[in-house]
Write the structure tokens for this entry.
Amino acid sequence: MLGRSPFAAAAAGVVGVAAAGAAYGWFEAGWVRLRARDLTLPGLPPELDGIRIAHVSDFHLGVPSRGVRAVERAVAWVAERQPDLVCVTGDLLSRPQAESQLLELLGRLPHPYVVLGNHDHAISRDPFSRPVELGRLEHGTMLVDTAVEVELRGRRVELAGVDPRSWLDRRPSGFADSDADLRILLCHFPTALDRVPDGRWQLILAGHLHAGQIVLPYGFGKLLLAHPGAPYSEGVYRRGATTMHVSPGLGTTFVPFRFFARPEATELTLRSG
């Protein structure tokens, strides 16, 4: 009996590697990291030292993906920890049929402050996205080029949120100056760090890039296939008096896989510096 040709053997090997890669990417999409980290903010009043902010982003509900599992675990973790603030930075829905699921998940969180992202309005090259008219929250506060103030430990905290449509159109958001003791901007896009006035907000919370979602590591770095030139992919960045945290997000777009870019929910404990 003749053995397989070298070509057939090579083809079988390629198929096997591709199947194994797809299986791992599907697994990683639900392998959520639940991370607590300290974040020093220069000028933070001592009374606010130690406040905890949960930051989650990019649910992309409504398409088949293990990202749904990541979102559910992240929401349960945040609800259990009961942080001082919960901030959600956009791209929550990919299709409108998941709106009730989103509202139910947000209802488990301690009063979330929410902004939308480009996918929520189907402003994307993703062929699976559909526009969603999410104009209400049964629980929490939607920030659409608006700001609110809350009191924590006797200090005033401003939470401002950017509408992704005005941001993409480069229309002014119209935020008035604030003398709050802590000023936080929720913007889906990490380019906020370069576009907002230095020091207007001490902390920016953003998402959008999924830590690359499909990433190829190499000897001294990693290549983000979806956004190879993005300067702020995930983690903490600083410019002058402004600090930004970019969430790796929880869901997926285009393909239901993640490679070397695990989903993450983050709890930031603010420290005065």
Observations:
- The domain at 9-272 is CATH 3.60.21 (Purple Acid Phosphatase; chain A, domain 2).
- The longest strand covers residues 33-41.
